[in-house]
Specification:
- The protein has 186 residues and is of the alpha/beta class.
- It has a single domain (16-182), classed as Vaccinia Virus protein VP39 (Rossmann fold, 3-Layer(aba) Sandwich), CATH 3.40.50.150.
- It contains six helices and eight strands; from the N terminus they run αβαβαββαβααβββ.
- The chain has helices spanning 16-24, 45-53, 66-76, 114-124, 136-139, 145-158; strands at 35-39, 58-63, 82-86, 104-107, 129-135, 162-163, 167-168, 176-182.
- The longest helix has 14 residues, at 145-158.
């Protein structure tokens, strides 16, 4: 605290979003009034930093692990713009009656079908933008991370989205890429 203002360290070694923001130099298109869908919220470290950015918005923080979810609740309970939810990002009915639209999606899950999960949610909630933290070794431990990233980029473009040049965040998270995706304006 300095003069009543809280300053916190956002460590790129502990947050893939912080690594992306540091390495991309252009930010991630996150806005202060975004309805933000966060898939793979874990214990809430990065979610709490997103909360500081989306001060006029709402974050729906989805986590699948019950043990981790308990930590998430404890870590974000003081933040009124975060709604923690226990659930599976693959479940298209998870947000039924709760959310029909999101401005932004952040996907940080370790699943072989993470690209499809990201795209399904991005389309379902008509997101303006999204950031996929591509965990290459979760897709295929035998393939080269670069080839998996290229395949993910082609899949995303094939669904009609614009994608910024991928950011290799391997300096902070081995075999990871940050893919900033935007809806194509018509």
């Amino acid at each position: 605290m300095v003069d009543g203002v809280e300053y916190r360290l956002w460590d790129p070694g502990r947050s893939k979003l912080a690594a992306h923001l540091l390495l991309s130099e252009g930010g991630g298109d996150i806005r202060q009034n975004d309805i933000f869908l966060y898939l793979g919220a874990s214990t809430g470290t990065t979610v709490s930093h997103v909360s500081d950015i989306t001060v006029k918005g709402q974050i729906y923080a989805i986590e699948i692990s019950k043990r981790t979810f308990r930590e998430l609740i404890n870590n974000v309970s003081a933040r009124s713009n975060i709604l923690p939810m226990l659930g599976n990002a693959r479940d298209e009915n998870l947000m039924e009656g709760i959310l029909t639209h999101a401005d932004y999606i952040y996907c940080d899950i370790a699943q072989p079908d993470q690209v499809q999960i990201f795209l399904t949610n991005m389309i379902q909630y008509s997101c303006r933008s999204g950031l996929l933290m591509l965990k290459c070794k979760s897709i295929d431990v035998t393939a080269s991370p670069k080839s998996l990233m290229d395949k993910a980029v082609n899949t995303i473009k094939g669904r009609g989205f614009h994608i910024e040049p991928p950011i290799d965040i391997g300096a902070y998270e081995k075999d990871h890429y940050a893919l900033l995706v935007r809806k194509v304006k018509k």
